[in-house]
Amino acid sequence: MALRTVPIRRAGNRDNLFMGGDRELVMFSGLLAFALTFSAQELIATIIGLLLWSGALYVFRLMGKADPKMRFVYLRHRLYRKYYPARSKPFRSNTNSQGKQYQ
Asked: Which residues of 77-99 are buried (b: 16+ CB within 10 A; e: fewer)?
């Protein structure tokens, strides 16, 4: 008896992109541009808001094309510390003199 194969469709595995960029980043930048435009109610603020949003959209499209999950990679990168001292065990408590060696 042969194994049954189940095709994995592309539509079920696509990344959540909107206008070519990360959905949340594109919508939030559009919201900020709209808030700037609406609160100032001037022509210059409208032009600046549209320029900011189109620039952000361009950057987010580049990010989405390079790696659709780049936002999550960047956020995880921000959680890492600059330096991890070497330790023999993960739960070892070093003395004060040992801790000063690594600073």
From this structure: eeeeeeeeeeeeeeeeeeeeeee
